[in-house]
Amino acid sequence: MSISDRLRALRQEIPPSVDLIAVSKFKPVADLEEAYACGQRDFGENYVQELVEKESALPKDVRWHFIGHLQTNKVKYIAPFVHLIHSVDSLKLLKEIQKQGASKGRIISVLLQAHIAEEESKTGFDIEELKEILQSGTLQTFPNVKVEGLMGMGTFTEDADQTRREFKHMAEIFEEAKQYEPGLKILSMGMSGDWKIAVEEGSNMVRIGSTIFGSRN
Ligand SMILES: *Cc1c(COP(=O)(O)O)cnc(C)c1O
To answer: What fold does the segment set 3-213 form as a domain?
Structure first.
């Protein structure tokens, strides 16, 4: 199947209320162009340099999502154009996004990455840290940052029960977070292997790579 065929098939399955981010890391510009020709406008990338190169090669109406670990010293390269940063995992990074947003005259939309995986290795804020950030008025000191919601990644596992448990937990955190910050609207969770469970548990934004573009080497 071609990229367009796989994209169309996927769109048939995903509810219209759920936004599909096509994760194109490591894939050549030609692959992104094929998805673009098929109507795809939201693309997700994990690496700053790769994102910057692709941004200059693709049409300007593409909405670029940064989904990888972001180093503070690299925020400046994506600040002029990035549509949504999903992976904000520290206050230090928020501060830098504020600084770069102010210097570019933009309000940059972000998601706070929540730690939901039962395994220890995944990054993100835990629930107590999220509460603290949302309750303390800290966000009001960042006028050039707009926190639009939360992002979570499940444990990489074959155990569907564990995945469901983690996504359920994430959805609870999202509901609780909205009580502190009613402006939160986006819950980004679900990838190729687990997006159906994520959507069943309340995700409204899925980040899908290999199902569209094929496996990465
Ligand atoms: C690579 C990646 C994805 C997409 O993964 P697939 O399994 O190929 O769909 C989604 N989210 C993040 C954060 C990623 O790094």
So the answer is: TIM Barrel (3.20.20)
